[in-house]
Amino acid sequence: MSESALRLGLLGSPNSGKTTLFNALTGLRARVGNYPGVTVERREGSLRLNGRAVVVIDLPGAYSLTPLSPDEAVVAQVIAGEIPEVDPPQALVVTADACSLDRSLLLVAQALRLGKPCVLAVTMVDELHARGGSLDLARLGNALGIPVVGVVGHKGLGLDELRRLLGDPSAWGRPHVLPPEDVEARAAWAASVLDAVVHVRPGRNALTEAVDRVVLHPLAGTLLFTAVMVLFFQLIFAWAQPAMDAIDAAMGGLVGWMHTTLPAGFVTDLLADGVVTGVGSVVIFLPQILLLFSVLYLLEDVGYMARAAFVVDRVMGRVGLEGRAFVSLLSSYACAIPGIMATRTIPSPKNRLVTILVAPLMTCSARLPVYALLIAAFVPATNVWGPLGLQGLVLLGLYLAGACAALLVAAVLKRTLLRGEDIPFTLELPPYRLPPARLVASQVWGAASAFLRRAGTIILLVSIVLWFLLSFPRSEAPAGLSESEAARHALEHSAAGRLGHAVEPLIAPLGFDWKIGVGLVASLAAREVIVATLAQVYASQDEDASLREAVRADPTFDPPTVAALLVFFVFALQCMSTLAVMRRETNSWRWPAFAFGYLLALAYGASFAAHRVVATLS
Amino acid sequence: MERLGAVSLLKLKMLFNFENDGNAPPEALSTTLDRLQPGDRCEIESMGVEGPVGVRLEELGFLPGTEVRMVRRAPLGDPVVYELRGAQLCLRAREARSIHVRRLLR
Ligand SMILES: Nc1nc2c(ncn2[C@@H]2O[C@H](COP(=O)(O)OP(=O)(O)OP(=O)(O)O)[C@@H](O)[C@H]2O)c(=O)[nH]1
Ligand SMILES: [Mg+2]
User: How far, rounded to the nearest angstrom, does the alpha carbon of residue A243 sit from its chain's CA centroid?
Assistant: First the structure.
């Protein structure tokens, strides 16, 4: 079946609407965003057209078939069939933004020279018309010698016509004369083609110009950006906390119900104190995760990311990197993995490596549960200035600390290990676009379900393993202990308890005890596991208290230790998946090992310093 | 009417500056891309960027004969956004300095 499938490659400039078209054709939900360089990997989807199996291959954007960055290299390799076990596309669907055809045709010319059947999908025709432009698509098709379809992928415009064509590439026709190879000659060719085709060129994009006048204004833009960020961190506590408390209460109720209703014993304890408590302690952070991803996706879909890169390029230049690296770092606020993947758009290999090595310092969403738990438990919910709450400001501070550390480490790396090499910075600024609400909603939902999936897999698994390690071997408690003292004794003599005690001497200088030790060891799998671990540890001692109340009641968590723990999580690279992706993207274990080592050293040092400073202050 | 005003204003400016400084008209028609002010338009005369980066700039549309409008400077002064061939691209001054252009009267 799959041998006979027709393989179609999507080729086009960055941000020209390839993935939108891919999603519309295949019904998949690949990531779309208003930033050049959202797609950095090949992705395939299948559909049936006139009874024929068709595989559509979504590709990263490329300005040219001569690659300059790793994501563009993917395009060239896939099309040339240089990737082992991946058949090259038999035909190409080339996308070109209707508003910048003068530029896009330079790539179209290269595509035509490949000798594969091509269709041209002219995207953004809605924007062309909104800006008063008009274009004769049929004549463009005649001039090029290939079929041309105007499309608006997310609205379904032109898709029927495109589908009709895609079923049968043999009928597409070929250019009468191949366009020239040399870039200047290609530009002359493009001009002559467009001369006969364009009725009216699009006017200026009034909306984008008006918004940029504010957003890119040195004063107004900075104020606006600061206001948005401060508001965001306030909302994480002000808005998300009530929802979170509701989930927390529901989870607590469930655990109580299980203990009273189910037959007492091993299985009930495992389900209630292991699975529900462990997984539930992480799931309650869903509201914060939703809020975080809504903000990140909205900024990207609207078109702000490229502006952010443009604004901070000067600062990044000081560090030795470029604006695009900043966008990778911003993506790492969601998770370091897409952030590391996004470095594929960076042309300079050394700059790319530096960005990969510092990406884990950005505050990923897995740290959010840890920060939110500790802040909610130990930072008073007072207002500092007007409506500005202290909790939100502390969280903002932690995020800023991670970002500053990333820039400092990058500057050091660029001046020592990875010196030299300065490839110039060019970046296209897309027009602002109002993303369809459905698109944003489905992206946020995608992120939320990934978070829940993680809770249902890694965290579930670790919770079960931990429950066993915390419950066995069972030891005989000395007589005369109260119930909670007996529980504590059992815990300390369990396998996990012994492990915690074994690492305690190492972490005692930071103020951490064996319970935190168990959490830290477990959190090497994924950061938020420490929350699940603590939840289980406290649940076995006192089932009724919420985790927040339990840590608050524990004398180990004094201000210096809480500060040290927060700082530890700012730096440490506790994430197996990040290490695996680093290894894949750098092709060796050397760099992930280096990143793990230097971040652990930084975490330990900074955490120790934080403990000392807070201890002397308080 | 507006257009006429702009042209004669530029001429006046050139005349004024020329009288101030006998050596060279500062608003020289021939200049480099980094010298433009927001709103200025020019046509590329020649590209002085070498190597793969030069080729890439050409493939992004920076080609002799292409009309370019300087849109704005970043808040910190660098890079600068240019509009050409229907797209907005930013470039650091270091590269823009090597692109020779001829100013177009507004
Ligand atoms: N108005 C309008 N917007 C579109 C159209 N097609 C795509 N978009 C928007 O343009 C932006 C880029 O779309 P993508 O599909 O991510 O583009 P891409 O070519 O896959 O981009 P990269 O993966 O970054 O190379 C998104 O904000 C889309 O919502 C269209 O036909 N009309
Ligand atoms: Mg894409």
Answer: 24
A34 lines ligand 1 (CB under 6 A): yes
Amino acid at B4: L
Is the distance from CB of A596 to CB of A580 less than 8 angstroms? no
A103/B86 Cβ within 8 A: yes
B84 three-state secondary structure: strand
**B40 lies in some domain:** yes
Q: Which domains does chain A have, with CATH numbers?
A: 6-203 (3.40.50.300), 447-617 (no CATH)
pLDDT tens column, A118-175: 999 999 999 999 999 999 999 999 999 999 999 999 999 999 999 999 988 888 988 9
- Contact of A558 with A569, CB cutoff 8 Å: no
CATH number at residue B56: 2.30.30.90
Is residue B79 assigned to a domain? yes
Q: Which residues of B touch A99 (CB under 8 A)?
A: 86-87
Tens digit of each residue's pLDDT (9 = 90 or more) over A252-286: 888 889 888 888 888 888 888 888 888 888 888 88
Q: With beta carbons under 8 A apart, name residues in chain A contacting B48.
A: none
Q: Is A303 near ligand 1, meaning CB less than 6 Å away?
A: no
The pLDDT-based confidence of B22 (bands split at 50, 70, 90) is very low
Which residue among A314, A426, A429 sits closest to B60, beta carbon to beta carbon? Answer: A426
Q: Give the chain B residue whose CA is nearest to the CA of A432.
A: B88
Domain that includes residue B100, residue range: 29-104
**In this structure, is residue B1 part of a structural domain?**
no
Q: Using alpha carbons, select from A49, A264, A13 the residue that is nearest to residue A122.
A: A13
The DSSP 8-state label assigned to residue A173 in this structure reads -
What b/e string do you get for A471-504 counting C-beta neighbours within 10 Å, with b at 16 or more? beeeeeeeeeeeeeebbbbbbebbebbebbeebb
Is position B13 within any domain?
Answer: no
For residue A421, what pLDDT band results from cuts at 50, 70 and 90?
A: low
Q: Do B74 and A184 touch (CB under 8 A)?
A: no
Q: How confident is the model at residue A66 (pLDDT cuts 50, 70, 90)?
A: very high
Nearest to A100 among B52, B57, B85 (CB): B85
pLDDT tens, position by position, B29-79: 899 999 999 999 999 999 988 888 888 899 999 999 999 999 999 988 889
Residues facing residue B86 across a β-bridge = none
Whether residue A514 has pLDDT greater than 70: yes
* pTM score: 0.87
- Tell me if A184 and B60 make a contact (CB, 8 A cut-off): no
A517 touches chain B (CB under 8 A): no
- In this complex, which of A64, A102, A424 lies closest to B85 when CB atoms are compared? A102
Nearest CA in chain B to A100: B86
Most ligand 1 atoms within 8 A of CB, residue of A10, A15, A104, A152 to mutate: A15
Domain total in chain B: 1
